[in-house]
Predict the 3D structure of the following.
Amino acid sequence: MFRPMQVAIRGESRRAAPAAVAGFVSHYGYYSTASNSQRLAGKVAVITGAASGIGKATAAEFVRNGAKVILTDIQDDLGHAVAAELGPDAAYARCDVTDEAQIAAAVDLAVARHGRLDIMHNHAGVTGRMAMHSVGSLDLADFDRTMATNARSAVAGIKHAARVMVPRRSGCIICTASTAGVLGGIVAPTYGISKAAVIGAVRAFAGELGRHGVRVNAISPHGIATRFGLRGLAELFPEASEGELKRMVETGMNEMGGGTVLEVEDIARAAVYLASDEAKYVNGHNLVVDGGYTVGKAANKPAPAG
Ligand SMILES: NC(=O)c1ccc[n+]([C@@H]2O[C@H](COP(=O)([O-])OP(=O)(O)OC[C@H]3O[C@@H](n4cnc5c(N)ncnc54)[C@H](O)[C@@H]3O)[C@@H](O)[C@H]2O)c1
């Protein structure tokens, strides 16, 4: 039954080739990430930790795709400069994510300025102390600080975004986690625990929010040589130059061959996908962008006898 149908389809497609190609091109063009695509047209977004690195790249990609973006951070001068660079669809406001009231205010600012909030991107984060400790020497003051900036902030961001999204029965919340939250032992335990908690928060709230038309997802990047990534490594390798640290991330930690290196724009485009209507049924997901790093571990194979 299938074979004749396939032959018929193949014959038909051969005759209609030019139109089909044109259709494919325009379809492909629609989903492309070219600078003129408008996958977030008319949407209003708040991004925390947007003055640099992945957050800055995400703000740029959101604006390029037609969103109005409120960038927030604690680096005010840098944040204002980045927003100015991005043009009239971007604005900057201070928001220290360790303070729930400031997260609430950032959400309220989006609603006051644009009438609604469509995308809340809980992105800001810190490494915490990176030097490896045995469990007995774990610094719990550092643990509390890191959990407040990375995990508690994501929960507060979900809470306040939901406050304005649920009544409209629409919205998308994205939380930045990490491969360090997927696998144990990649970096210092405190950071890994904080990012595992982010993934846990996404899973804990996805069911409730999904029933109100609001999606909540995580993105877990692997190592990228941003200031964040390099600062963490610098603590572990204080003698290494910046160039050496960058090579450690882009070569030593790289999973992909063929000269492919993970860049901030790759994470920004993952965020555009999750924020867009193309992901309308994607909820409670952790979108891992790691070149396959977390899918397996090489078995310790015994050396062949003799
Ligand atoms: N770069 C990587 O290798 C990597 C990998 C996985 C996950 N991540 C995650 O990506 C996020 C940011 O990383 P990045 O690489 O863009 O680093 P980055 O240092 O360039 O950006 C982090 C931003 O967060 C801001 N920030 C720090 N504390 C804040 C606070 N209390 N309130 C508001 N803003 C604050 C900083 O000022 C900075 O602009 C973090 O959540 C991090 O855990 C990074």
About this structure: Confidence is low (pLDDT under 50) at residues 1-35.
